[in-house]
Amino acid sequence: MDETTAPSLDDRTTTEADRHRSALVLIDLQEDFLDAPGMRERRPALLRAVRRWVDLAEAAGAPVIEVRTELPEDPEAWALNMREDGQPVALAGTPGASRVSELADLEMTTVLKRRDDAFLGTGLAALLRGHGIDHLVVAGVSTQACVAMTAASAYAHDLSVVLAGEAVASDDAHAHTEAIRWLADEYRQPVADPADGWPHG
């Protein structure tokens, strides 16, 4: 799977692309994930924080990239746990696969994925590499799953990562805390405080 949709970073001039060495990556901010039990009460605060990070990115001239899970109807394309449970999420063409309504007005480059790791089977690495981006600020859900797997994979791609403070969430507080600790200890990926401004000047 290798799908990237407009507006593309390719719309920028080479000079502009050279200036933008960092990007904000938003992961799985979709109805199926944020309407799940345990996430509904976290949704308002999470999305307010995401908006704040989008504003910081735009003020710094950094592109915003949306990564969304989108699965076909064929169960063979689903993750193992979804196949075993017979309960897929974010099926293509369903309301649950769409970006959350609170962010519907944003114009972003979109990368579609089928697994937790946003680099696996997608064009994300090539997109970043093609525009000289080597620093990422990562936001989204869930901390211990798609966020952690993407952040660890970014490390393997020699990309510097910080997590967007207040804009990363999980329905499991313990798993969230442990994932944050693991990323910091193993990959030197800290949590950035939005009050400090955009972390990659």
Describe the structure using short key phrases.
single chain; 201 residues; alpha/beta; 7 helices; 35% helix; globular
What does this molecule look like?
The chain has seven helices and seven strands. It is an alpha/beta fold and 201 residues long. It has a seven-stranded mixed sheet with strand order 1-4-3-2-5-6-7, sandwiched between helices. Helix 6 runs parallel beside helix 7. 36% of the residues are buried.
Largest sheet: 7 strands, mixed
End-to-end C-alpha gap: 33 Å
- The share of residues in helices is 25-40%
Structural class: alpha/beta
Any low-confidence stretches, pLDDT <50, length ≥5?
Answer: 10-20
Order of helices and strands: EHEHHEHEHEHEHE
Let me know the average pLDDT: 87
Shape: globular
Q: Over the alpha carbons, how many angstroms does the gyration radius reach?
A: 16 Å
Instruction: Let me know the number of strands.
Output: 7
Q: State the helix count.
A: 7
Give the strand order of the largest sheet, numbering strands 1, 2, ... along the chain.
1-4-3-2-5-6-7
Question: Topology, pairings included?
Answer:
Layout: E1 3-5, H1 14-19, E2 22-27, H2 31-34, H3 43-60, E3 64-69, H4 80-85, E4 109-113, H5 124-130, E5 135-141, H6 143-156, E6 160-169, H7 173-187, E7 191-192
Parallel strand pairs: 2-3, 2-5, 3-4, 5-6, 6-7
Antiparallel strand pairs: 1-4
